[in-house]
Specification:
Elements (H helix, E strand, L loop, with lengths): L13 H6 L5 H7 L7 H8 L8 H4 L10 H6 L19 H4 L5 E5 L2 E7 L23 H13 L5 E6 L7 H12 L6 E6 L1 H4 L6 H8 L5 E6 L8 H12 L3 E7 L8 H13 L3 E6 L14 H12 L9 E4 L8 E2 L8
Helix pairs in contact: 8-10
The protein binds iron/sulfur cluster.
The site of iron/sulfur cluster has 11 residues, from loops.
Length: about 350
């Protein structure tokens, strides 16, 4: 049932699901039958980064299980407030790459458009948890200026919709933007980085497919799924619709302590992605953002984990292990340790 209504999740449109997300720690704990001693530290952590969990995501968690891998990604905890050396506000230096409002231009040939500052879920490990989205909320005139920026740089062959979550924008906005970008001759590809279909699969509608696919541009969607339990029946249906519309589907995950740091977690995730025609693309080591230190895994463990995956899965189901480093010309691959035990 949706929070505050009697409607079952499956029958509700995505805008209502977005608007009725749980944002209150007490409600989250009660719904999952968890100990209320978690309330006080949870509220303190929320003062820095609010709670947000949509109902379809909550429905995939196990009540009473504090170690549920989906819950751990969203539950605000006291550890977030402990200072950790090296964990800072803007670990990727994005505020220097924010070329103009709405644009992050880090790498040659491609740029990110902040299509929406909003997200459907607040992931506690998010490297943009302190990003100044309010400064990137564009007026119509600023959108035109962002398009001028792309038009003026013929090296830009790929535009990436990012956020926040770009699919938190409405279809009318996405359709308008996609058509305008497709009019720029040197743009060859569109990429959409989103977690929204994972947490609210109802976001995938005919109207969305038309908004993204109704141009000459080939579209790649990079989903953000961290655990096999996130890939339920509803998401499988959404993935099938996206593929049916001609999109290439990739996944990126973040390696998170207590969520997906065991070999069996990673294998189950890759297998489930493969079952649904989604290729594992990147496994990111954690960005050192303030408040996320409790998710940290050391590099050696990460390299060995992916090395073991290679001995158990076909190569195309093994993601590239990468780190993003401020100021580098691309993501930095980590050399894996091939262990054959
Ligand atoms: S959906 Fe993406 S941008 Fe939004 S909080 Fe989660 S990781 Fe961050």
């Amino acid at each position: 049932m949706i929070h505050g209504t009697s409607a079952p999740v499956e029958s509700v449109d995505w805008q209502t699901l977005l608007a009725t997300s749980i944002t209150d720690v007490r409600t989250l704990l009660e719904r999952l039958e968890l100990d209320t001693t978690l309330l006080e530290p949870g509220l303190a952590a929320c003062a820095e980064f609010p709670l947000r969990v949509p109902e379809p995501y909550l429905a995939r968690m196990q009540p009473g299980e504090l170690n549920d891998p989906l819950l751990r990604q969203v539950l605000p905890v006291g550890e977030e407030l402990q200072e950790q050396p090296g964990f800072i506000l803007d670990p990727l230096g994005e505020q220097h790459s924010n070329a103009r409002p709405g644009i992050i231009h880090k790498y040659h040939g491609r740029l990110l458009l902040i299509v929406s500052g909003g997200c459907a879920i607040n992931c506690r490990y998010c490297f943009r948890r302190h990003f100044p989205y309010a400064d990137n909320n564009l007026s119509s005139q600023e959108w035109e200026q962002a398009l001028d920026y792309i038009r003026a740089d013929s090296s830009i062959s790929e535009v990436i919709y990012s956020g926040g979550d770009p699919l938190a924008a409405n279809d009318k906005r996405l359709h308008w933007l996609t058509r305008r970008i497709a009019e720029i001759p040197h743009v060859r590809r569109l990429r959409v980085h989103t977690r929204l279909p994972v947490v609210i699969p109802q976001r995938v509608t005919d109207s969305l497919l038309e908004a993204l696919c109704d141009t000459r541009l080939p579209v790649t969607m990079v989903l953000h799924c961290n655990h096999a339990n996130e890939l339920d029946q509803a998401l499988a249906g959404a993935a099938s619709q996206l593929r049916g519309a001609g999109m290439l589907l990739l996944n990126q995950a973040v390696l998170l302590k207590g969520v997906n740091d065991r070999l069996e977690d990673q294998i189950a995730l890759s297998e489930r992605l493969g079952d649904n025609g989604i290729l594992p693309y990147y496994l990111h080591v954690l960005d050192h953002v303030r408040g996320a230190g409790h998710f940290h895994i050391d590099d050696q463990q990460a390299k060995e984990l992916v090395g073991r995956m290679l001995t158990r899965l076909p190569g195309f189901l093994v993601p590239k292990l990468v780190r993003e480093v401020a100021g580098r010309a691309s993501k930095v691959p980590l050399p894996i340790e091939l262990l054959e035990d």
